Structures are given as C-alpha cells and as structure tokens.
Amino acid sequence: MNAPGRGVCIACRRDRRVRADGRIFAHADPQTPGRSCPGSGELPRPVYGPLHREPRHLTAPFDAPGRSPQPYPGEGREAWRVRAAAVRRAALMQPLADVELGEFDVRIIEWLTGWEPSTVATVASWLHRAREAGRAEASARRAGR
Ligand SMILES: [Zn+2]
After folding, report:
1. Rounded Cα distance, 11 and 104, in Å
2. Residue 142 Cα, ligand 1 centroid: separation in angstroms?
C-alpha cells in the first residue's frame, strides 16, 4: 500500500493514515488493547515496496502517483542530463550509506545512473528493502525470537 496519505508506523510497522503535517494518525496499540500505539503522531517509515507497477519516483514511496522528474523550465538539455544523473546516483547511494564500495561497485553505480528512473528506482527500492529486512532480522534476534 503505497498510496499517498499512508505510511508505515515506526512502532507497530503497520500501514497507517498520515495526517496533513506528515505524521501518523493516532491508532490503537495492537499489542496493548485500550492504549495508543507509541508510533501515533510520529513520522512514518517510508514504504519501499513491494512494487507492483512501474515506479515514477526515485525516493519512497516509489510507485506513488505523479510525474517522473522533469527538467526545470529553461533548463538546458545538458544541465538537465547532469542533474537527473546526480539525482539517480543519490537514489542509489542513499540505501548504500555505510556500505564499503570498491572501484568496480562505483563503476556499476555510475553505469546504473544512466538507466531510466524506473529502473534506478526499482534497484534503490531493493536496496532499501534489503536493509529493512536486515534491520528486522537483527531486532528479532535481539528480542530472542
Ligand atoms: Zn503503530
């Protein structure tokens, strides 16, 4: 569920309605009946996927409706090409934060930034989802589950 106005609660990790100020609406704590979820009023976690249609955005939610990035009015073709590549590169690098990259890794990232935004967004979404899965695995291990 990647519709705008929805987000994943940082506490209960469920899909929740998002207020106009970008925070999650108050909702019940799924584990403690009668109490509010501690994630109520917090900023939601971005929804990274799964993707069921071509993504239009380079940041989450990737498949929200809307237009793909467009050149600024009056932006020259070369300036737009350079800026668009920088935005695609940033989309790939963000989920790779704290990951050590070798020269070949960087070469392939540069190659990927030449692809259309939907391809880059999909790869970025995989990287984000892999990070999330790792985070969930680590927290389950800590909780002894
Ligand atoms: Zn919650």
Report:
1. 38
2. 20
Residue 107 shares a structural domain with residue 55:
yes
Outline where 7-116 has alpha helix (H). Answer: 77-93, 103-113
Look up tokens 């392939």; give the residue: 108
Q: Per-residue pLDDT tens for 101-127?
A: 999 999 999 999 999 999 999 999 999
- CA of 134 from ligand 1 middle (Å) equals 20
Threshold 0.90, pTM exceeds: no
Ligand 1 center to residue 25 CA distance, Å?
9
77-93 vs 117-142: helix crossing angle, rounded to 10: 20
Q: Ligand 1 center to residue 14 CA distance, Å?
A: 6
Produce one character per residue of 13-48: b if its CB has 16 or more CB atoms within 10 Å, e if not. Answer: eeebebeeeebbeebeeeeeeeeebebbeeebbebb
Domain containing 5 equals: 1-45
